[in-house]
Amino acid sequence: MQIGPRDVLIVLDVQNDFCPGGALAVAEGDSILPVLHRIEPRFEHIVLTQDWHPANHSSFAATHPGKAPFTEVDCSYGPQTLWPTHCVQGTRGAEFHPQLGMDRAELIVRKGFHTAIDSYSAFFENDRKTPTGLAGYLNERRFQRAFFAGLAYDFCVGFSALDAAELGFETFVLREACRAIDLQDSVARMEAAFAQAGVVVLETAQFMS
Questions:
Q1: Average pLDDT in the 109-128 region?
Q2: In what order do the strands lie in the sheet with 200-202?
Q3: pLDDT on residue 124
Q4: What is the dihedral of CA 53, 123, 180, 36, to 10 degrees?
């Protein structure tokens, strides 16, 4: 696949707390690093995202007395999964994995910093109304195709890809450069949503050919 100047690689949340040993570790999350390093040189343009929560964020189980992680509560914007406290602003857990090594990234989008709203997508908070500004940036720079990788495949990567497709970008997910949480069949549900939205899931061999 040819990659050109109107293509952008968007790498989601490769942070310490989402990698082995972190507060919300995705199984084998750090195993995507070699794949990312093989893919990165093909792209002229790279964007990174970073979960960036205040310590009292509403998505943390710890802020809901008696509630356990991975259970659900109703918020003003709908159901919200409660997570272990993770990616707190200014902590080591919120830092990028030290081996990520994508210093060429032209933009870092921080998300989830509004105390009362979680943010899976790189484009919108979970209320589906509050934009991060990424869509405006990509449109102003006239990108046409968006390629997604990172953590986690069935949450932040997936919701970002769905939003990109809805916003009119030709959208691809680089499957081997992602790892999933797979909470209550979330992988199957996300892949069904990809199929309906026209998001193309690529294996590395397809992408590198």
A1: 94
A2: 107-111, 46-51, 7-12, 145-151, 170-179, 200-202
A3: 96
A4: -100
Name the band, by pLDDT with cuts 50, 70 and 90, for residue 125.
very high
Strand partners, 80: 73
Query: Contact, 179 vs 12, CB < 8 A?
Result: no
SS3 208: helix
Q: In the chain, helix, strand, coil percent, each to 5?
A: 30, 25, 45
Enumerate the active-site residues: 13, 111, 156
Distance CA 60, CA 198 (A): 32
**100 CA to centre of own chain:** 15
pLDDT digits (tens, 9 = 90+) for 156-192: 999 999 999 999 999 999 999 999 999 889 999 999 9
Cut 0.90: pTM above it: yes
Number of separate helices (H) and strands (E) present in the chain: 5, 8
When pLDDT is cut at 50, 70 and 90, the band that residue 76 belongs to is confident
